[in-house]
Give the backbone structure.
Amino acid sequence: MKGERRMKGKTEKFEDLIVWQKARVFSLAIYKTFKTLRDFSFRDQIQRAAVSIMNNIAEGYERKGCREYGRFLFVAKGSCGEVRSMLHLALGLDYISRQSYLLLSEQATEISRMLYGLIKKL
């Protein structure tokens, strides 16, 4: 790809990326938090959005070129926003405690910031 440089640093696979590792832990936390929720459409949507974060990081990493990688990182960042929005709703509907909301929201915000930093480096 003319003029494009791959920003992988020393990582050889997406599993080495700290942001992917954090997104994986976050996805597991979302699954565990909402696994018994009887509002199935809400549960499925927030779980899919959380998994979208880690999967888009992985898929973008495996693509060729910075531009395409960046597009997938933007999608992952958007999914972070979706999860955070749904966490507000979950709190308002008493699906989660204030403590769970704060913890999960903080994790999502951290991942979003990391994605933004990675996007800027591209």
In short: The longest helix spans residues 66-92.
